[in-house]
Structures are given as structure tokens and as C-alpha cells.
Amino acid sequence: MFKKIFIGIGLFVATIMVLVIVAGIIIMHKVDKDFIASQMSKALNRQVYIEKIDVSVFSLVSGIEIKNVVISNFKTSRQLSSLQGQPVAANDVFTSMEALRFKIKFLPLLKGQLDLSEFVLYSPVINLSRNRQGVLNIDDLLQPRDKQPPPEKKAPEKEQERMLSADDLPFAVSVGETGIRDGTINYYDGKTGQAFQVYRLTTVAHGIEIDSKDLDKKNIIKLKMGMGLKTVGPMKTGSVQSFDITMDTSGRIIPFDAKTRMLDPELILHLSLPEGEVTGLQVFNSIATIPILGDYLGQYISFLKGTQKWSNSRNNGADLRYKAGNAQISNGRLELEQAKFLFDGNMNTNSKALAVKLNMLMKEEINEKVKAELARKINSVIKNPEVKKYTDANQLAETAMQPLLNKDGVIDLKFKVGGTTARTKVSLVHPRLDSLGKIVKSSAAGILTEAGIKAGKELLGEEKGQVLEGVRDLLRKK
User: Fold this and answer.
1) 3-class SS string, 241-263
2) How far is CA 296 from CA 128, 286, 367, 425, 438, in A?
3) The pTM is what?
4) Residue closest to 125 by CA, chosen among 101, 98, 87, 85
5) 235 near 241, Cβ under 8 Å?
6) Residue partners of 162: CB distance under 8 A and separation at least 6
7) What is the rounded CA–CA span in Å between residue 179 and residue 171?
8) What is the pLDDT of residue 370?
9) Which among 104, 108, 129 has a CA at the least distance from the CA of 119?
10) What is the pLDDT of residues 296-307, one digit of tens each?
């Protein structure tokens, strides 16, 4: 019996090996660089040049590697015919990459399942652009290939934009790893004249499991991403002048809504910001120009108008949750040399509307410097030299500082951030601060009372002058 089982297993393995070898031979004969390039050209409407492709009898198992791929910008069919087999012109490169590797598991194909072990682009350079009319150089790739019906016969908009359903998938999908390693994306916006660059981009989707028959359990894409993002030249519009920030992201994507079964991705991510440099951030500028804060904190708040830098930070970052155009931000943290910022809230990616709570905690070591500056300003507000004789500016400064301090003795400011990403509105929520002039004015009655008591003592003598002190104490109780 066991002998038959072993023979059966041997026959099964042998059959699979034969199928793999036959498929590999077919691949070797059919799949070469010219074949792959021509198929990619037809699919992309772009000139494709491939330097080398590595295939073997066991490519289905070991994988296929395509080396040094260069893809042009859009080309017509006539242009593609004349350019076939030629290298892409240097000034016409849409994207290039050192290698493209993919491995397909053979056995799942027999069951009608697509199971990729690897599909990764290595060191790609992608050049994206938008012209003055707002047309992207990838718009042709995003449009459906079917011919559109005449304008008078167009279907209603809702029917045209029907979302993909999980039930539209022809097979279950399982992917070990797919993504980009060490990539660069250059983007130029012709409408604004602004350029950006994504550098050292490594983004890998892994552990991908999508099965329409078991959507409750198999409906996930795990994600890891690291990259740098910077402006190329100063910003001409928007809420920041320039930036250069590195990011590390990990989390997951739930592509289909389990109830509607429609493609409606939900992103749940943790974003880390280990290093960065930002100049002219609109939120910071708005805080620095709040008049009352300028009166109280002076130079110790004006630093926000300059360039902010941080490095080697394990704490800076936020938790993000996104679905249907709404991004929720929680546990946000940004530690700078002079202050720490905590934030959470919402942003609508369609309207660009903001609703964020922002908490600014300043370094405790500046407290004495702030108090000394406050005392100087309070002293300058008092014009009458006689009144100055009975005024303790340091004591008034210490009193004025109390609303700024939390229970830990740290200057603690809370803000509400609204408006849009283009026009941010910032208002001080806590503390409620009186102007320095009002602080001096509110203490004037006491100052004048002290002056009056001293003058009365000089006129009436010490014993009768004590009566005035009693009157003052009675007035204070009232």
C-alpha cells in the first residue's frame, strides 16, 4: 500500500516537473527581450528598450529578470513602428530601471490562482510631469482602452465610474512581495512651475491576500515604505516655502469594503519622520505672528518663522487612517530644538479642509529669560516715574506668566488649526492672555493705594497711617 502511495506521489511530482520544464522551454523560445519589449510597447503606447533578459528552463521557479529597461513618453503607432529595436533618446525618457524581477508560482496557476513570489522594480527613475493645461504625461495610461461612446449617447456619470468589485477579480491573488527598491521620482508641474523629487524610494507591498470568496479573512495588503521628499527650488504656491523630509511608513491597506464588496481602500499607517528640514511652514508663521504671543514671548516665538531642522529622531511622526477622502491624524509629534508639537485632527483630501488641534510645549530653560523680557516690557509700559517707585515689574512679570505655564512649569500653548492646506487659519485657544497694558492698569489701583498710604503716613504720622492700611485691606476684601 505504502509502495503505491510513494509511486503515486512520484508520478505526481514527475508530472509537475515535466509541466514546469515544458513551460520553461516554451518561455525560452517565446520570451526574449524583443518579444517582451514589443508586448510592453503595445500595452503602454511607448517605446521600450531592454538590454538583456535572463530566462531559463526553470524560470517559472527561479524567476525572470529583465535588465536595464528604458521606456519613452507616449508614442503613436506609426512612431512605435519606426523606433522598434532602437534605444530611447535621452531627452525622451519616461522611466528607466536597472532591473525588473518577477517570480510566478506554477502550481497555483493550475487552480486558477495568481501567486506571485516577487514582482519588484530595482532602481527605477520615473519622470512625471503636468503641462500648463493640467495634462499628466501618464494620463493616457489611466484612460480606458475601449472607445468612448459619442457624447450624445454617453452613459450617466455614475455608470461610467462604476467602481471595481471584489467579484470582478477572475482569481484569488496572493503576492509575496511587489514594489520598488531604491527608486527616484522626478515631478514637474507646468501650471505652477514647481518641481519635486522623491528619492531613495523603497516601497514594498507584501503578504498580499485577496480572495473574493473569503473577503472577511483575505482582504489585506501589508506595506512598508521609506523615502525622502523634497522641493526642487522654492515653492511658488502652497503652505510652505521649501522642505526636505525623510519618511518611514509601515501598516496595511484593506482594498475592498467588506460590506459593499467595492474597491474602497482603507489605509492604516504609522508614519515616522526621522530627519527633516522645513522653511516657511504656514502654520508656524501664523503662530509666530499672533500679536499677543509676540508681546509675551518675543524672540522666543519668532524662531518659527525660520528654517526648522531635526535629525535622528525616533519620536517624530503620526498615526494615519485614511478612507473615502478623509484622513485622520492621531498621536502626531514633532520635536524641534526650541519646542515640541503634539497634534491630531482631520484633513479632507478632496476639499483640502483642515480641522487640527495643535499643542506647543516650549523648553523649560527659557522661562527665566521670558520672565526677564516681560519685566522689561512691563517697566517700559509704565510712563509715570512716580508710579514706578511703587511697582515691582518682576513680580508683575511672574504674575503675567502664570497662565502660560502648565502643572509641570512648562509654557504650554494650544491652538486650533482650520481653513485649508493652501490658506491655513490658526487661533490661540489656551491660555487666555491679557495685554501687558491691561495687566499694568489692573494693578494701578493697588499701586496708587500704596503711594497714598505712604504719603498719608508722612503727613499723619506712623500711628494714624496704619488706619489707611486697614482701609486698603478692607477694600481688597470687598
Assistant:
1) CEEEEEEEEEEEEEEECCCCCEE
2) 47, 16, 11, 21, 13
3) 0.75
4) 98
5) yes
6) none
7) 21
8) 92
9) 104
10) 998 899 999 989
Altogether, the residues listed in the chain come to a count of 478
User: 170: cis peptide before it, omega within 30°?
Assistant: no
Q: What 3-state DSSP class applies to 477? A: helix
Kindly report the number of other CB atoms within 10 A of residue 411's CB atom.
22
For residue 96, which phi and psi values (nearest 5 degrees)? -140, 155
Separation of alpha carbons 197 and 46, rounded Å: 23
Tell me how far apart the alpha carbons of residues 179 and 177 are, in angstroms, rounded to a whole number: 7
Q: How far apart are alpha carbons 349 and 5 in whole angstroms?
A: 60
State the CB neighbour count (10 A cutoff) for residue 233. Answer: 10
The CA distance from 172 to 251, in Å, is 22
Look at residues 334, 359, 338, 341 and name the one whose alpha carbon lies nearest to residue 430. Answer: 359
> Contact 65/53 with Cβ under 8 angstroms?
yes
The domain spans of the chain are: 280-437, 443-478
Q: What does the buried/exposed string (b/e) look like for 192-210 if buried means 16 or more CB atoms within 10 Å of the residue's CB?
A: eebebbbeebebebeebeb
Cβ-count burial 362-381 (b if 16+ within 10 Å, e if not): beeebbeebbebbbebbbeb
Nearest to 271 by CA among 211, 305, 210, 313: 313
**pLDDT tens, residue by residue, 250-292:** 999 999 998 899 988 999 999 999 999 999 888 999 999 999 9
Are the C-beta atoms of 440 and 396 separated by less than 8 Å? yes
Q: Which residues pair with 246 in a beta bridge?
A: 228, 275
Longest dimension (CA), the chain: 127
Of 300, 292, 290, 216, the closest CA to residue 259 belongs to 216
Say how far apart CA 454 and CA 467 lie, in whole Å. 12
Residue 369 amino acid letter: K
C-alpha to C-alpha distances, 119 to 65, 199, 279, nearest whole angstrom: 10, 20, 38
Q: Yes or no: say if 318 and 358 are a contact pair by the CB < 8 Å rule.
A: no
Burial status of residue 474 (CB atoms within 10 A of its CB: 0-12, 13-18, 19 or more)? exposed
Return the bridge partners of 114, or none: 173
The pLDDT of residue 32 is above 80? no
348 neighbors 356 (Cβ within 8 angstroms): no
Q: Which residues pair with 104 in a beta bridge?
A: 116
